[in-house]
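Sat 14:20. Reprocessing the chain from the morning session after the first attempt stalled halfway. Input below, unchanged.
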Amino acid sequence: MKIQYKELSFWEKLYLPAIVKGLSITLKHLFMWPKFTMQYPEEKPEPGPRFRGFPKLVKDKEGHPKCVACGLCAAVCPPHAITLQAEETEELSWERTPVSFEIDMGRCILCGMCEEACPVEAIVLSDTYELVINDTRKWVFEIDKLLEDWEGKETELFLKNRK
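Finished this time. Tokens:
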């Protein structure tokens, strides 16, 4: 079977109509369509409902960490970014409380497995997506930093660590 091609005209051989058509589409998109550019530091994008930002710990009604120090989050963490040490307690309604709870944000891959493994929903992934720290030793967040309320003060919270 032999394929027969259409004979090209003089203008088609020059590819001028194809170039003009491509430029017209480019100009149409350049001048006619709405622009979606954000001025990032001043205007911040709103993350979607399934967005996974940096992890933080949840407090109970009395202000104590909701964590029962079961260690499931540390066991399920793929990059082993979570370290946890527990102690027995009698002052809370549960038996154990974390003495130290650290997350190495340099290793954390924001997978959300720690949030899914937690039986009491003590660790959640927040909407925070800005993290400015130049010193790698400050990437390890301890329990006090994980319990802080980051809403609206992400830049203030993390820019003070740049020194």
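Residues 154-163 have pLDDT under 50 and may be disordered.
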